Amino acid sequence: MTSEITLFVNPTAGRGRGARAARPAASALRDAGFSVRTILGENAEDAAARARAAVADGTGALIAVGGDGMANLALQAVVGTGTPLGLVATGTGNDFARALGMPLREPAAAGRMIADALKCGRVRDIDLGRVGDRWFATVLASGFDSRVNDRGNRMRLPAGRFRYDLAMVAELAAFRPFPYRITLDGGDVHEVEATLVAVGNGSSYGGGMRICPGADLTDGLFDITVVGDCGRATLLRVFPAVYRGTHVEHPEVTVFRAARVELAAAEITGYADGEPLGPLPLSAHCVRGAVRVVGP
How far apart (Å, rounded) are the C-alpha atoms in residues 64 and 271? Predict the structure, then answer.
C-alpha cells in the first residue's frame, strides 16, 4: 500500500467541526509516517468527482472527515476499487462510524487508530446496501421518520437538530399509518399498515437510534424492521426504546431478514445514510463484502 492517503473533508460537518477535525487527524497520520493529501469540494458533485479522482490516482486510503453524509459520498468513490475507506466522525449522527467502532468526535484518536490499522493491515470487507446505482452503509428509512426528514428539510429555522424535533412534533400531529407492500427476496409479500419500515445493513440511524439492533455488516442480509399501526400514544411509548434496541420486543414490531427487499407505499420518500434516495417504490439489495474499511 502506498504511504500517501487522502483526507476527504466536509468543512461544514457538525457546524464547522469537519474543517477543524481535519488538522488533528492529518497530524496523527503524518506522525505515523503517512503522506496526507486533503481534498475539499465546492459542492457535493465536485467533492465526489475529486474523491473518485484520488482513488483512480491510487491513493492508499480515502478517509472521510465529516458525518454520515460525507461517509456516504466517499462510499460511492471506493466501492469496487479495493481502496480502503476510513472515517473520522465529526458529524451529528455518525452512525456508520459507530457501527465500525471508530471514535466519535475525537479526530486525533481516529487518526491514530486509522494509521495503526493501515500499518498493521487491519482492514476488512463489509456489506453495503444498493438501490439502483446508489450505495448505503447503515439504514434505508421510510415512513414516519422519512416524513420527519422531509418536513425538517423544508424548514429554514431553527438551525440544527432542533429543526427536526419540531418537524417530529408536527408529523405526530398529522400522524397516520401508511399502507405498504413489502416484497422479500422476490417472493414473500407482506401488505401491511405501518408507521415505518427501516432496512438495516447497519443497526442504527439518527445518531444512535438502534432501529435494526440485530443487523450485521458481514452476514449478507438486511434486517427489516416494520413498526405496525401502533397509534400516536403507543409510538410515543415505544420511541425511547429505539435507543436501546428493545422496541423489537413490542408486539407491533416485526423484523424480517432478506438479501433483497422491495418497498412500495404512496407519498413516501426513502432516505439512506440520511440522504434522500427518492420516492417509493424502491428496491434494495444487500451486497456482501462490497467495500473495504479501516477499523479497530
Answer: 20
Phi, psi of 86 (to 5 degrees): -120, 160
Enclosing H/E stretch for 262? strand 260-264
Distance CA 153, CA 69 (A): 14
Whether residue 148 contacts residue 269, with contact meaning beta carbons closer than 8 Å, is answered with no
CA–CA–CA angle 186, 188, 190 (5° rounding): 120
pLDDT in tens, 123-172: 999 999 999 999 999 999 999 888 887 777 777 777 666 666 777 777 77
Domain ranges of the chain: 4-121, 136-289
Q: Look-up: residue for cell 493501515? A: 118
Q: Which one, of 129, 153, 178, 164, lies nearest residue 285 by Cα?
A: 129
CATH number for 136-289: choose from 3.40.50.1820, 2.60.200.40, 3.40.1280.10, 3.40.430.10. Answer: 2.60.200.40
- Whether the pTM exceeds 0.90: the reply is yes
Q: Which residues of 281-294 are buried (b: 16+ CB within 10 A; e: fewer)?
A: ebebbbbeebbbbb
**What count of residues does the chain have?**
296
pLDDT at residue 100 above 80?
Answer: yes
3-state secondary structure of 35: strand
Residue 220: closest CA among 270, 271, 289: 289
